[in-house]
Amino acid sequence: MSLSIAERTEIVLIVGDRYKTTREAARIFNERHPGRSVNHSTVNKILIKFKETGSVADAPRSGRPKSATNDENQINTLAVFQRSPIKSPQKAADEVGLSRRSVGRILKEHKYHPYKCQIIHGLDDEDEVVRLQFCQWGIETIETENLNPFRICFGDEAIFSLNGHVNRHNCRYYAPENPHWAQEVHFQHDQRIMVWCGILGHTIIGPFFFDGNVTGQSYLNMLINEICPAIDTLEVPTDWFMQDGAPPHYAIVVRNFLDERFPAQWIGRRGPVEWPARSPDLNPLDYFLWGYLKSEVFRNRPKNTDALKENIIAACHNVTPEMLQNVIGSWEMRLRHCITAGGRQFEQLI
């Protein structure tokens, strides 16, 4: 079987990745290319050729001149990015003595793509342990059929401001297409509103808006007068109520109310089940809803807070049951990813 230059180069790179054996390299290559079949002997011959000649190509049959992207330059260029994946193409070109354009052709031929750095939320020293404990509890309780993610009411607040930003450091959802809009920002006269939303099964609860700053008492009033009555109107049973560790949620009057309304079945700071701090990647409102609303509510540039509220309400109504099916359906998967990561951040890995 004849291997292309790109395939031979790939084999050399596989061996060079953490010093794979020839048998391991053959297995990995065959897994990547179903229908192809190389053995360790073939891998060994390619390595010998590369060590002796600095190239994986067959001996030249004529006096054809070398091109800028010949085998040796390809190997050298790819080796640069193996050693330093964040090196710029221009610096790599300077290092191997090629043009920026030639380096670009080599990267394109070997299907190297420039991936952007993803911003992830920070964790404190003890957060990993608490996150791991929470996720293990979630998986164990789901597997014993004592917890159904579609019967958890996930709740959260976010600040929306007229300057077009959601004031949430942990908002990381991005629209599938660039809306290409811009808006003038006047920070001195910035108007903002605080909104609470919940997700229960295939339904958005709310949105409900606070008058002024959120306190323990104003949050309790909203629970009593708006959130819980809205939950009671739904046909979906609510087994659990979830809130994060924001100070208003921690108020003793709030916790006492939740103890009565959801006895032994609410998740939050010092609740029956402890919510792990700094975990937006485990809260459906953080990893989906606030970002989705951000992509929708500013499309027509609301001029005042009343228009902003109307846009938020309309955007919430446009969230379909199918969207929420995917959002809540992925919650268990996220718990498992967090466990696999040992409680550390995992979104950059999925």
Question: Helices, strands, pairings?
Answer:
Elements: H1 5-16, H2 22-32, H3 40-53, H4 71-83, H5 89-96, H6 100-109, H7 127-143, E1 152-161, E2 192-200, E3 203-209, H8 216-232, E4 240-242, H9 247-250, H10 252-261, E5 266-268, E6 273-274, H11 284-297, H12 305-317, H13 321-329, H14 331-340
Parallel strand pairs: 1-4, 4-5, 5-6
Antiparallel strand pairs: 1-2, 2-3
Helix pairs in contact: 1-2, 2-3, 4-5, 5-6, 7-14, 8-10, 11-12
Description:
The protein is of the alpha/beta class. It folds into 2 domains: 95 residues, no CATH class; 223 residues, 2-Layer Sandwich (Nucleotidyltransferase, domain 5), CATH 3.30.420. Helices cover 46% and strands 10% of the residues. It has 14 helices and 6 strands. It has a 6-stranded mixed β-sheet with strand order 3-2-1-4-5-6, with helices on both faces. The longest helix is centred in the middle third of the chain and has 17 residues.
The CATH C-level class name of the largest domain: Alpha Beta
Largest sheet: 6 strands, mixed
Tell me, rounded to a whole number, the average pLDDT. 85
- Flag low-confidence runs: 167-188
Estimate the global geometry from the Cα principal axes: elongated
CATH superfamily of the largest domain: Ribonuclease H-like superfamily/Ribonuclease H
Q: How many domains, as an integer? A: 2
Strand content: 5-15%
Indicate the CATH architecture of the largest domain: 2-Layer Sandwich
Number of helices: 14
Cα distance spanning the termini: 36 Å
How are the strands of the biggest sheet laid out side by side? 3-2-1-4-5-6
| Helix-strand category | alpha/beta
Order of helices and strands: HHHHHHHEEEHEHHEEHHHH
Radius of gyration: 27 Å
Give me the CATH fold name of the largest domain. Nucleotidyltransferase, domain 5
Tell me how many strands there are: 6
Portion of residues within helices: 40-55%
